[in-house]
Structure formats: C-alpha cells, structure tokens
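== Sequence, structure tokens ==
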Amino acid sequence: MAQSATAAANCATFDAVFAAHVHPEISDAHRAVIHATLDASTIDKRTVAAIRALLDKGAAPTEPPMSVDEAKKLTGLTAQGLNYHARRGRIRRAYVPGSSRSLGYVAADIRAIVEGRAA
C-alpha cells in the first residue's frame, strides 16, 4: 500500500520531531508501528496529538554520547579495549542517523561496565 503525501508527511514529522526524544533502545518494530499508525488514512489530528503526548510522556531523557576519551578515562581501557567490548556487544556505539561513523559510545553502556553490570 503506497503512502499518501499526508501519511508520508506525518511519518517524516514524527522522525524529525521525536528523533531527539525517543529512547535509543526503541526498536525498529516500534517505529514501524508508529509509522503505520500515522499512515492510516482515517487518522485525525486528535489521535495524532494523543500519540505524540504518549510518546513524549514515555520518552526517556536523551543523553549525549560519551566520547572515546571520556570512556577511556572512566573505564581505564584503551581505545582498542573499548572497540573489543563494542564488537562483543557489551557497549554500543553512538551514531548520527544515516551515518556510518561513530560519535562515541552510549553513556549508559559505559556506566554499566564501570559499575560491573555489563553482560
């Protein structure tokens, strides 16, 4: 089913407005459900406002990524050590959407390593 111009605009608005507010762990499935909701041809402005209010209420505050230098200082690891843990999935790299170059690491993951909570 092809998206109408209004539905495409709703999805683009969601991505633009909420990208900074949606928790980094929101899955692609959640995003697909939200897009499908916004894509519905019968959706009214009141429903869109309710969805936005719920997303805004449940969104975790965003936190800037931790730079490699900050992560090295906190963990006592080298850049190669951090890279090893990232490859093993213990810490996640932080990216700008659409970019392949990392800005650093997800700060919560670095804190988990420091606190001994990392898997």
User: Anything to note?
Assistant: Residues 94 and 105 are 5 Å apart (CA to CA). The helical segments are 5-18, 28-39, 45-58, 68-75, 79-87, 107-114. The two ends are 41 Å apart (CA to CA). The first helix runs from residue 5 to 18.
